[in-house]
Design a protein that fits this description.
Blueprint lengths: L1 H29 L2 H37 L14 H37 L3 E6 L5 E4 L1 H7 L8 H6 L1 H9 L6 E6 L4 E13 L2 E10 L1 H46 L8 H28 L8 E4 H16 L5 E6 L5 E4 L1 H18 L7 E8 L5 E7 L27 H11 L3 E7 L3 E7 L1
Parallel strand pairs: 7-9
Antiparallel strand pairs: 1-2, 1-5, 3-4, 4-5, 6-8, 9-10, 10-12, 11-12
């Protein structure tokens, strides 16, 4: 509609100019004074009118582009005055401004929303221009963690904390890395990861920094509380009868010394009491040694070993334990060339532990059987499985099965499966357990 109105008005003015020029040409050719003067006057008026018509619309468009250039979208163009085509043009300008303002408002709302979220998270985040060092954005958590005031350029950090500057801004951390930052009067353990991204022609670096000092301290404190609780319980269980028995023996001896009886003190009773104290003390020592074995494994020495060789070693090691048992131990291996990268000594320890548990679980079962197998899972992950048809594990204790010192056996130390889990974690793998009561148990070692 705007285009048609503009085209009509332009056509009228062009025709008027052609008529004026025709009259001027007639006056020149026929030497007609009135025609010459009238044609000249009309031509000037037509040219001026056409010029004003065209230039006014160009000025309106230029005015709109100027406001766009300076991002002034608050301007409102009059829609009720002037020619129809300019009114329509102003409506179009106002619609564009309104749309851009709506988009800008939505973008601002999203930015504020995202900013609030990033301010609330307990993770430091900073983005800056790689070339100029100008900070695009940094949240309060980063400033609080590093004890910095708000800064505009990373050169601020370079001048005040060169070591932190080198670690944060000069070192590239492609993967999440644990580092220790030297603060003014303390050291701070943090996790750092960063990435570089492009925006228009500029490169920016985004750094994410998480303070893990408090988390480590809190977890360590909780671990100590649990450990002390378990150890106190176990130690008290051993010390209480020792103390009680020692007090009884001491009382009997003291009474015998103070008031000698005709009959002598029974040495057999003393010997029996001391023997009980000795056994309890040995049990306490065994507990201490058992706990120490939890901390014994700190690293692994991986070598490439065929599953068939590993199974042969386990089979030889388990023969003495199975001599007087009716349990059938079966090794299954579909691919004889299947190999693993692992610490053979530690994994043998894990498998022996699991097989011994399976032997205990199959006690009293008809045709007890334990199957040890190895294969690749659907994710091409190497796995070794130990399955039995024993009594299974009750659902109510499944969550406690890997807790140190937890055991359902009368003579169990409660560290076997905990040690297995620790060894698998050191291998970068994990241990999974599936069990149904009275149906058997399947333990999977995933590498």
């Amino acid at each position: 509609m705007t285009y048609k109105s503009y085209l009509f008005a332009l056509t009228v003015r062009v025709l008027g100019l052609l008529i004026a020029l025709t009259l001027l040409a007639f006056g020149i050719v026929w030497f007609h004074t009135y025609a010459l003067l009238g044609g000249t006057l009309l031509s000037v008026i037509a040219v001026y009118n056409l010029y004003r018509f065209v230039i006014k619309r160009f000025l309106e468009v230029d005015d709109f582009f100027e406001s766009v250039k300076y991002r002034d979208f608050s301007r409102w163009f009059v829609e009720t005055k002037g020619p129809q085509d300019i009114r329509q043009l102003h409506k179009g300008f106002n619609l564009v401004n309104k749309t851009i303002k709506a988009i800008d408002s939505e973008r601002q709302a999203q930015f504020v929303y995202l900013q609030k979220i990033l301010e609330m998270v307990n993770i430091g985040i900073i983005a800056y221009n790689v070339e100029s060092g100008d900070v695009l954005w940094a949240n309060d958590s980063l400033l609080k963690t590093l004890d910095f005031p708000s800064f505009k350029n990373i050169s601020f950090v370079e001048k005040r904390r060169p070591k932190i500057y080198d670690e944060l801004f000069e070192t590239y951390h492609s993967n999440t890395t644990s580092v220790t930052l030297e603060m003014r009067q303390e050291t701070l353990k943090v996790l750092i990861s960063d990435t570089v991204f492009e925006m228009a022609e500029d490169s920016f670096k985004l750094i994410v920094l998480q303070n893990i000092e408090e988390t480590l301290n809190r977890n360590e404190s909780e671990a100590w509380k649990k450990l002390l609780s378990v150890m106190t319980h176990e130690i008290m269980n051993s010390i209480a009868p020792i103390t009680s028995l020692a007090e009884t023996l001491q009382k009997n001896i003291q009474e015998s010394m103070e008031q000698p009886h005709p009959e002598t003190l029974e040495l057999e009773d003393i010997n029996a009491g001391l023997n009980s104290i000795k056994k309890r003390s040995e049990g306490l020592m065994k507990f201490a040694k058992t706990y120490r074995s939890l901390n014994k494994v700190t690293h692994v020495n991986k070598t490439k070993i065929k599953a068939s060789v590993l199974f042969d070693n386990i089979n030889e090691l388990m023969k003495p334990s199975l001599e007087n048992k009716e349990v059938t131990l079966v090794f299954k291996l579909d691919d004889p060339n299947l190999s693993f990268e692992l610490d053979a000594y530690l994994i043998e320890q894990v498998l022996i532990n699991l097989i011994l548990n399976a032997i205990d679980a199959t006690e009293g079962i008809r045709q007890p059987q334990i199957i040890v197998s190895a294969d690749l899972s659907h994710k091409a992950t190497g796995q070794i499985k130990v399955a039995d048809n024993g009594s299974g594990i009750p659902a109510e204790i499944m969550d406690s099965i890997f807790v140190p010192f937890f055991s359902t056996k009368k003579t169990g130390s409660g560290i076997g499966l905990s040690l297995c889990k620790q060894i698998m974690l050191l291998h970068g793998g994990k241990i999974q357990l599936q069990s149904s009561e009275n149906q058997g148990t399947l333990v999977s070692l995933l590498f």
